Amino acid sequence: MFAFILRRLMQAAAVMLTVALLAFVLFQYVGDPVSTMLGQDGTAAERAELRERLGLNASAPVQFAKFVGNALQGDFGMSLRQSEKVSDMLKSRLPATLELSFAAALIALVLGVPLGVYTALKRHGALSQLVLAVSLLGVSLPTFLIGILLILIFSVGLGWLPSYGRGETVAIGWWSTGLLTKSGWTHLILPAITLSLFQLTLVLRLVRSEMLEVLRSEYIKFARARGLKRRAIHFGHALKNTLVPVITITGLQLGGIIAFAIVTETVFQWPGMGLLFIQAVQFADIPVMAAYLCLIALVFVVINLIVDLLYFVVDPRLRMSVSRGTGGH
């Protein structure tokens, strides 16, 4: 078990170093930060002084080592557009993105797993076929179009829900949350539904296909032959074995939700990291872009590690294989 975790941590460190290298290249060779900060009116002396202060005169390996060292401390320099610390900017936007992402993931799981199980157990039913037909909308329609349609229906047409912003928030230390106010909840509904639809469809269809596959397996047939009740077969045996791939996809999709909340945050003007990244791209704010890239990579690495560890809880076969491998060494 320890060797397995150590191996995963080493792989995670290698991935983060690769991403840091990409971010460093982006930082160094896409645009000129000196020209961006001083503009066209900067004198040669001012440019030379700023290059020295930013450490741009050092060799590339020295600059990369300094970049990695600063990144490990959460320091990605100053924003070229707003002249603020990038770490402070991300810190202020992080709560909004995480609340939106976790709300979307919760909707996808709470609806996707039961609907997947239902459509598998009642695969020939009219309601099951209707659910599968409607679920295609979550895959076929792009996220920005779904968001615009929801705004047209529930904000412009019915006037039930707000169409932009995060609403009233409450500060708990450095964390700001909209989950403690009515305004925050109403502002969260439309973007969370928009962000969750693709993931909901994915979870629903994955659970359905895996459930159908498990129900055709030999041990399920043996359980039926033993006279076990349907509920025990479906939920005690079939569903438990269905959850292994579901955990994988759900974990990876949570990282995807956080990374690709950019479109939803832009449509609803949700003040999260995704909207900050879009604004950074528009103004070529390289430090913000590099920091966002590293942060999203860290999210994926951490989630992958958690998913690997959850396998030990759900799948006893993996525990046995790792134990044999450890014992052999």
Please provide a brief summary of the model:
This protein has helices at residues 2-29, 33-38, 44-54, 60-72, 86-121, 126-140, 143-157, 182-215, 218-225, 230-259, 262-267, 273-282, 286-314, 316-328, and strands at 170-172, 175-177. With 329 residues, it is mainly α.
- DSSP helical segment count: 14
Weakly predicted, low-confidence segments: none
Element-by-element helix/strand order: HHHHHHHEEHHHHHHH
Name of the top-level CATH class of the largest domain: Mainly Alpha
Instruction: Quote the distance from N terminus to C terminus.
Output: 12 Å
Average pLDDT number = 77
Work out the radius of gyration: 24 Å
The tally of strands reads: 2
Strand order of the largest sheet: 1-2
Percentage of helical residues? over 70%
CATH topology call of the largest domain:
MetI-like fold
Q: What does the overall shape look like?
A: globular
Q: Tell me about the biggest sheet?
A: 2 strands, antiparallel
CATH H level of the largest domain: which superfamily?
A: MetI-like
Overall structural class, as computed from helix and strand content, comes to mainly alpha
